[in-house]
Write a sequence for this structure.
């Protein structure tokens, strides 16, 4: 299945894939190789990759920050949309999964745009802030360990420029955030973050019902 969303029945998933998804060959191979992994569900769908690339082009993004690389689908999608002098700063802790990302960055011809930091993302983000990169990014994406989402959000907001765009994945969490009977820690953290962003006067935010729910926030 090309399109991943618990919000769409299978016939609509097929329809969306047939009519709105144009996937470069390198991304098709990356998606197919990732699908064999036991945690393949961590990968975004190609419809979301298309959306992210279009958003990058619409805002004229040159500097993109990613928290959570996995096997590289989202970073490759955005890197392909950036201009030749575009820069991707990617944060992850897994050498195993990002080794696949590195292969596909090279295959897609975007490896020179991407700097990978293999360290806890809060450390990388704090270092970027300390090194003077506050307001230095046009676009950012958070798709990593859920307990740290609030920590990532606060740091990334600092690193985005005014009118920069922040994307946050998995904000519907398969619908669990809307079910008060679900009280596991990840769900409670996502539920609280969603509410906090709704009340955060530093941003304008909306929800795109794509994949597992995608927040799009513009920094004022």
């Amino acid at each position: 299945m090309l399109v991943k969303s618990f919000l769409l029945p299978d016939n609509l998933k097929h329809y969306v894939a047939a009519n709105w998804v144009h996937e470069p060959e390198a991304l098709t191979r990356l998606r197919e190789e990732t699908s064999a992994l036991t945690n393949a569900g961590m990968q975004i769908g190609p419809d979301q990759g298309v959306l992210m690339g279009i958003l990058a082009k619409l805002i004229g993004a040159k500097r993109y920050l990613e928290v959570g690389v996995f096997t590289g689908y989202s970073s490759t999608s955005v890197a392909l949309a950036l201009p030749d002098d575009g820069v991707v700063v990617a944060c992850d802790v897994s050498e195993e999964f990002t080794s696949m990302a590195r292969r596909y960055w090279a295959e897609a011809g975007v490896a020179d745009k991407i700097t990978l930091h293999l360290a806890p993302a809060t450390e990388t983000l704090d270092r970027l802030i300390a090194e003077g990169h506050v307001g230095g990014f046009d676009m950012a994406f958070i798709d990593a360990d859920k307990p740290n989402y609030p920590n990532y959000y606060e740091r990334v907001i600092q690193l985005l420029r005014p009118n920069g765009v922040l994307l946050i994945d998995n904000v519907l969490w398969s619908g669990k955030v809307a079910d008060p009977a679900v009280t596991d820690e990840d769900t409670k953290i996502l539920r609280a973050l969603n509410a906090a962003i709704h009340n955060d006067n530093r941003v304008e935010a909306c929800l795109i019902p794509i994949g597992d729910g995608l927040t799009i926030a513009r920094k004022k």
